[in-house]
Automatic annotation (TrEMBL):
A GO term for molecular function: metallodipeptidase activity
Example GO biological process: peptide catabolic process
Organism whose genome encodes this protein: Paludibaculum fermentans
Ranges of residues in domain Peptidase M28: 252-443
InterPro entries: CPQ (IPR039866), Peptidase_M28 (IPR007484)
PANTHER family in the record: CARBOXYPEPTIDASE Q (PTHR12053:SF3), PROTEASE FAMILY M28 PLASMA GLUTAMATE CARBOXYPEPTIDASE-RELATED (PTHR12053)
Coiled-coil region: none
GO CC term, one of those recorded: lysosome
UniProt keywords, alphabetically: Carboxypeptidase, Endoplasmic reticulum, Glycoprotein, Golgi apparatus, Hydrolase, Lysosome, Metal-binding, Metalloprotease, Protease, Secreted, Signal, Zinc, Zymogen
Protein name (record): Carboxypeptidase Q
Superkingdom of origin: Bacteria
Localisation: Endoplasmic reticulum; Golgi apparatus; Lysosome; Secreted
Amino acid sequence: MHRRTFLSLTPAIAAFAQGRPNLTELYGSAAARLIAAAQADDGGWKKMMYLCDRIGNRLAGSSSLNRAVEWSAAEMKREGLQNVKTPLVKVPHWVRGEESAWMVEPLESKIVMLGLGGSVATPPEGITAEVVVVSTFEELEQLGAEKVRGKIVLYNEAWQGYGRSVAYRAAGASRAAKLGAVAALVRSVTPVSLRSPHTGQMIYTEGVEKIPTAAVTIEDALRMHRLYQQGVKIRVRLKMEAKTLADADSANIIGEIPGREKPEEIVVMGGHIDSWDVGQGAQDDGSGCVACWQAIMLAHQLGLKPRRTLRVCLWTNEENGTRGGQAYREWAGATVKNHVAAVEMDGGAEKPAGFGLSIQGASEEVMVRAMERMQQIGALLKPVGADNMIRGGGGADIGPIMRDGVPGIAHRSSGQRYFEWHHTDADTLDKIDPQEFRQNIAALAVVGYVLADMPEKLTD
């Protein structure tokens, strides 16, 4: 989720507005048409049903991701988007295989787990070892190698928000391996659990032995923590068949409404078409892909052809490599300088809240001017409650072009339950409210169209 900083319209911003067209007034009619069309739309929901129920989860390297790429490109062409392309992207190919975890002492009991993406396998017979439980990296270091060597380390770090807690998922294995641990378990990075484990990417430190690592549920982590605090010896048997194969072929999917006056200037918006290999990848990030795609389709269906090119991109491999975003920057080449804005939706399709803006390297004067324009666009979004415009935005897939100075805009939702479903078997279509989904489409449609049609660029 994105940092929220609330801004008011300052005198300085008002000064910049003098002599410039007011976007709220200029696009009131077009925004109303787009919002009405989005609220009555069923095309986006039909796409979501197909993607989730007939294709399913879409991990990089999988046949289901390939099917999603082929289906998306074919649908864009059928619907009349132009310049539909699928530029090749080489992506990592990690395969989960069979996996299990059991407590074998002080009692025989199943541990509900999911291997973390990128993990190595255990030996075929598994690893059976005593468990030490820590809540922080500092506690691990205090134990030292003497108490960690030959053990399985369990990180029972309570939810501190995704940005902080994800560090244990990412770095926990290598931190434990440095002290001689034979495996690492991580309490799932989530505030709420119904004994549901959350997978996600982990990263091995170069030069440190690679040990298998998996996420366990909050309930199992707390149970082991209680036993450990009582001085009860805990032994766990972990089996994982995970492996990393040679890089596989995938693709970004691109479609456009070419600009009527300045087709060389581009507003790109999208989400990531890949997901983890559990659930249906509905909230993360089928919703972002389809909402951005349908937002552009509504402009097309209403005959609203903007000054600049309005492009949708469904990026591949955000989850375990971000190769899609990197490949898009390389594919864009010198045309990156013609991108006037990039919009990413990757926080789920709960009730929309607004958008966040970042422009790397921009002066305060430019940021003030850009924020004034974003707030004028925000005023158009009050009917769907997405009118809060803040500083601070971007995303993993648009990050590479943001480093070239392209304004990055993050779609923001309420995010009330997103991390309950994130990276789990529960990330399924039923977790999305259809009306809230349509509100997100409406917000994206207005933002995308106005950015592509406004007389001046955000940074002018």
